[in-house]
Design brief:
By secondary structure, the chain is of the alpha+beta class. It contains six helices and three strands; from the N terminus they run αααββαβαα. The protein has helices at residues 10-24, 31-34, 36-40, 75-93, 123-130, 139-155; strands at 48-54, 64-70, 98-105. Strand 2 (64-70), helix 4 (75-93) and strand 3 (98-105) form a beta-alpha-beta unit.
């Protein structure tokens, strides 16, 4: 019998998998890219994109320059907010890793919104699915399986 694997957070898996690609762009701290929205806030995040970090001297203690792509109309806003953004980045990581921002104007790819919300199954759909789920000791698991079964049946046109 196979031992079930432990569940992992998606964020724990994404960071290491993109670390090599981001390392080529000078990002020794992957979280600048993966947590960019949290760092710059909801107003600037959709209009900006961190591109690259330039380290002046890897042996020295000088902070890096973060190159950020920004949509044209928001370049001035980001220019004014640059000291605050640099402070937020450094506060986020707990050390002075970024000394300044260098802005590059250009298009920023649109981000998709949250996934569409699936309407809850109707009571008749739940009842039809409940007949297919064997009774179990764990009521929460039985309820979740019933709901999943109802949604799958709806998706497949089984009513």
């Amino acid at each position: 019998m196979r031992k079930p694997k432990q569940a992992h957070l998606l964020a724990d898996l994404v960071g290491p998998s993109i670390a090599e690609a981001l390392g080529r762009a000078g990002f020794s701290i992957v979280e600048i890219v993966t947590h960019w929205d949290e760092i710059v806030g909801p107003d600037l995040a959709p209009r900006t994109l961190p591109l690259k970090m330039q380290w002046p001297n890897r042996q020295g203690t000088e902070p890096a320059t973060l190159i950020v792509r920004v949509e044209g109309a928001y370049a001035i806003e980001l220019q004014y907010a640059a000291p605050v953004v640099v402070e937020r980045i450094n506060a986020y990581f707990g050390w002075r890793c970024v000394g300044r921002l260098a802005l590059r104007q250009g298009p920023v790819p649109r981000r998709s919104g949250p996934p569409p919300r699936v309407p809850e199954p109707a009571p008749s759909e739940l009842e039809a699915a409940r007949r297919l789920v064997p009774p179990g000791e764990d009521e929460a698991l039985t309820s979740a399986l019933t709901r999943l079964g109802a949604l799958v049946r709806r998706e497949r046109g089984g009513g």
